[in-house]
Design brief:
Blueprint: E1 5-8, H1 19-33, E2 41-47, H2 61-68, E3 72-74, H3 84-93, H4 97-100, H5 114-118, H6 125-131, E4 135-141, E5 163-167, E6 176-180, E7 183-187, H7 191-194, H8 196-209, E8 217-222, H9 260-263, H10 271-304, E9 311-317
Parallel strand pairs: 1-3, 1-9, 2-8, 2-9, 4-5, 4-8
Antiparallel strand pairs: 5-6, 6-7
Helix pairs in contact: 1-3, 2-10, 8-10
């Protein structure tokens, strides 16, 4: 195939690498490199808590075929912080946590806080891309505290975005509020109209329907999958019934040489904890099947509109996950032996 695709897969472990700066420079450099030609379109699809070590890409066969096999996979990629808001703030700014200031997922921790909005948010990568003449679109989870009444409410639309479909607060699949260009839109629990991953795909399709070869566009889709509460689409609830979380070398092992918080974990895990860990693993994979459908829909629409050959597609995750590593049943912070 002749079209340009870039497949960014993100490791779950943290490392002292200039990963986020690389993403920022990569996205902006694409635009500058074509300054004297037809500027390329860019589609950035970001998942939530998806991993590599635990097989997070395994269920996404369409994405691997359409993006990974047809493009480039970066295997030596790292996150600077394994927590949603700090990591996403790094993606948006290209800065480490100590520079952008979002240290956790709370407003007091500078997650979409007034200070963030008056400082770092004014210098996100999209503000530079917008200055280069791009039409811009965002749909999905932004930062965990986005839309909070103490963070400007749904009326706040971050600078640089022409079309804004922002999820209020953290990842969910049903019963949420979206900011549609600054106006609240409430959703319930009907799969056909409210399932968030599918809805984001429909908004993306609508945006692409108005695009042409004359004006370049940047589109970012930020899905809730595969973050808790792990609600899969009804057609996928029985998938992977016999799968279990990977038994990595550190699975259900005591982290005797780790931080005291990890050393304090109950090890070995109780059987009920292991069963629950396996159940979460299956549910996470099921949510990713809808992301796989979303990716396929975006690629097909680009192809139908004859925009695919001039479009870079970037796929990544904000950070990864733990499922039983060092006897931590789930997440990266959970110290409970039974969840």
């Amino acid at each position: 195939m002749t079209y340009n695709t870039v497949f960014l897969r993100e490791q779950w472990r943290s490392a002292d690498k200039m990963y986020r700066l690389a993403i920022l420079l990569f996205l902006v450099s694409i635009c500058y490199c074509f300054a004297d030609k037809a500027q390329p379109n860019i589609v950035f699809i970001l998942t939530d808590d998806q991993d590599v070590v635990l097989g997070g890409m395994t269920p996404m066969t369409k994405t691997k075929k359409l993006l990974g096999d047809a493009g480039i996979t970066f295997t030596n990629m790292f996150t600077t912080s394994p927590l949603c808001c700090p990591s996403r703030s790094s993606i948006l700014t290209g800065n480490y946590v100590h520079n952008h200031g979002a240290v956790n997922n709370s407003i007091d921790g500078n997650c979409s806080s007034p200070d963030w909005q008056s400082g770092a948010e004014k210098k996100t990568f999209i503000t530079y891309i917008k200055q280069m003449g791009y039409s811009t679109f965002f749909a999905g989870k932004y930062l965990n505290q986005y839309g909070d009444k103490n963070a400007g409410g749904v009326e706040h639309v971050p600078p640089g975005w022409d079309s804004w479909v922002g999820l209020v607060h953290n990842s969910v699949y049903y019963n949420y509020i979206l900011s549609i260009n600054g106006t609240a839109e409430k959703h319930g629990d009907d799969y056909k109209t409210d399932y968030l991953t599918d809805l984001l795909g429909r908004h993306a399709q609508d945006f692409l329907g108005y695009q042409n070869e004359q004006t370049p566009f940047f589109m970012m889709i930020s899905t809730p999958a595969c973050h808790a509460p792990f609600d899969s689409a009804p057609q996928y609830v029985k998938q992977f019934a016999n799968k279990q979380a990977p038994r990595t070398p550190s699975f259900n092992q005591h982290g005797s040489d780790k931080h005291w918080l990890i050393r304090s974990m109950k090890s070995p895990m109780l059987n009920v904890s292991i069963e629950n860990t396996d159940d979460i693993f299956r549910k996470r994979w099921r949510t990713l099947l809808s992301v796989d459908d979303l990716v396929e829909g975006v690629v097909n629409t680009l192809q139908d509109k004859k925009l695919l050959d001039n479009t870079y597609i970037v796929f990544s995750s904000d950070n990864g996950y733990h499922l039983g590593q060092f006897s931590m049943p789930r997440d990266k912070r959970d110290r409970k032996s039974v969840v």
